[in-house]
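Sample entry (161 residues):
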Amino acid sequence: MGVPTATRPAPKDQRDGAVRTRPAGSAVVVLGLLAAAFAVTSFVVPKSARGPAKEEPVAAPVAPAAVRTVRHTVVYELLGAHGAGNVTYAGAGSALTQRAEVTTPWSTTFTQAGPAGRSAFASIAARNPGPGELRCRIIVDGVVVAEKTAKEPGRLFSCAV
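Predicted structure, serialized as tokens:
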């Protein structure tokens, strides 16, 4: 006596002796997917993976041009009969200096460094205590570059370049 074996019933299509086949549309879909995958891959893969690339020439680094520094001698002068008040001026390195009162004639001299081809910044302001005139002058390297006179007592005025 043997052991009975179970058999599977045949699919409904094969019961009549017909063989089931896949429709041709499935093959077209699979081939279309493969073609799309190939197209996407060819655009996504980096160019270096496709072979040696042409090397671009590299530009040499450009060093900044050296700027020549020059020195200027700057003189501020206040001239008048009754002194000056509230004197404020830009000194060496453009540092502001203030004096409450000075007797006239008054002057101060300093050296200012800066790039060649540029004029030096210079500025002085003062109050005329009056009566009479108060004159300010700025002299750079021996040349008067600014001059102004105030006649009204109590007036604040300035010279600048």
